[in-house]
Design a protein that fits this description.
The chain has 406 residues and is an alpha/beta fold. The protein is built from 13 helices and 21 strands. Helices cover 32% and strands 23% of the residues. The structure holds flavin mononucleotide (FMN).
Length: 406
């Protein structure tokens, strides 16, 4: 099951005084259903078209209209601190003109000048208004300054005319928001990253399985850090009890075979693969459909067979991503890891001595050595898994860059 990239995201929706204001209700409802945290800012004129109570009920947040409403903070600045992304939908010719010319005479137009996050403008108006030299010049000026303009659609307009000026459907607006969230910049901006995390469970019968103590923390930290660095991230996760990282698409799996299948769905589509899952190497050859009874037996033998090797199959992808793997070792840690790196066709391996206190499975910290394909070995001190994720992505970023420059 894939999770939305909107979950937990803080989105300001500006609604202005056009007929299409009613469509903003559907947009807001869709964002809230995707678990985004939405604050609606309406202009005075928007309130002539839809009631603020609708947006307050949909979002569970108070709706802001008034620049002068008494508050403990400065509202337009607080909105800028809150927002990961802003969308003005519908955007009237009036708000477009004000924003393009730096006019700040109500809450929305004032807030627009304070936002540093991506701003999306979805114009909706009569086609002649839209075609007017003033509106076109204003839209051009805004686009040049980095605002993202959602192209209005052709079709039937509320004024009875047919032409360009319709607010696109919710799906198009949501796609623009997702795109803006993905491309906020950062060193991994524009790159697609696939991470695996957690243990797998290999069933013996419906109530028993073979697994390992992986908590998933290392892979979740890598996914969260890659997202923060601007990558588009998918996390294929075995069963763990962790909150999915913000903005990361999570695909939940249970067994090694399911993990392999979920990863293979991205074949050829990623720039960086980080295999942090503790995938079982073996599974019971047959999983009983019924609970195995202990009655009448003192012993039980489970015949085990090999599971698919996820990293080895990623190494066969065309084009092949930069591949990062982990090696949990108990002796000859670096030598064994370097051998595994070569054998599996990886570019970087994170070797950890799971026998050492504070390292490996389960805990908050890790003690690792990075070994890369050009023979560099970096011994890192005991650090948080978030810091290990950052060090790993620094090195992976270098490997991607050096590959691109070849
Ligand atoms: C019935 C009606 C429909 C309107 N529809 C639009 C529209 O779709 N787009 C637009 O730019 N202006 C439209 N206007 C004009 C705006 O409401 C007007 O320019 C107003 O000043 C916009 O204020 P605001 O941008 O602060 O919300 C409409 C006006 C009326 C009376």
């Amino acid at each position: 099951m894939a999770e939305s990239t909107l979950r937990g995201r803080r989105i300001v929706v500006g609604v202005t005084g056009g007929i299409a204001a009613y469509k903003a209700c559907d947009l807001v409802s869709t964002l809230v259903k995707a678990e985004a945290d939405v604050q609606v800012v309406m202009t005075e004129n928007a309130r002539r078209f839809v009631g603020e109570i609708t947006f307050a009920a949909l979002t569970g947040n108070p709706v802001s209209c008034d620049l002068w409403a008494p508050r403990a903070d400065v509202h337009h600045v607080a909105l800028a601190d809150f927002a990961d992304v802003v969308i003005i939908a519908p955007a009237t010719a009036n708000i477009i003109g004000k924003y393009a010319n730096g006019i700040a005479d109500d809450l929305l137009s004032t807030a627009l000048l304070t936002f540093t996050c991506p701003v999306i403008i979805a114009p909706a108006m009569n086609s002649r208004m839209l075609a007017s030299a003033a509106v076109q010049a204003n839209l051009e000026a805004l686009a040049e300054r980095g605002a993202r303009i959602v192209e209005p659609e052709e079709g039937w307009l509320a004024c009875g005319e047919v032409g360009a000026g319709r607010l696109p459907d919710t799906g198009v607006l949501v796609a623009a928001i997702e795109e803006a969230l993905r491309s906020r910049g950062g060193p991994l901006s524009g790159l697609r990253v696939l991470v695996t995390a957690g243990p797998t469970r290999e069933p013996i019968d419906p109530v028993r399985f073979i697994s390992n103590p992986s908590s998933g923390r290392m892979g979740y930290a890598v996914a969260a850090e890659a997202e923060r660095r601007g990558a588009s991230v998918t996390l294929v996760s075995g069963p763990v009890s962790l909150e999915p990282p913000l903005g990361v698409e999570v695909v939940a799996v249970t067994s090694a075979a399911e993990m392999h299948e979920a990863v293979e769905a991205y074949a050829g589509e990623v720039d960086l693969f980080v295999g942090a899952a503790a995938v079982a190497d073996w599974r019971p050859a047959e999983a009983s459909g019924e609970k195995l009874s202990k009655d009448g037996r003192d012993e039980m033998t489970v015949r085990m067979v090999r599971t698919p090797d996820v990293i080895a199959s990623v190494a066969r992808w065309e084009p092949r991503p930069v591949i990062v793997g982990f090696a949990a070792e108990t002796r000859d840690v670096v030598a064994n890891a370097a051998e595994k790196l070569r054998r599996k066709g990886m570019d970087l391996i994170v070797a950890n001595d799971v026998g050492q206190p504070g390292a490996g499975f389960g805990g908050e910290t890790n003690k690792v050595t990075l070994v890369d394909v050009i023979g560099r070995e970096t011994d890192l001190p005991l650090m948080s898994k978030a810091a290990v994720a950052a060090a790993l992505l620094d090195r992976a970023g270098e490997l991607i860059a050096s590959r691109e420059s070849q």
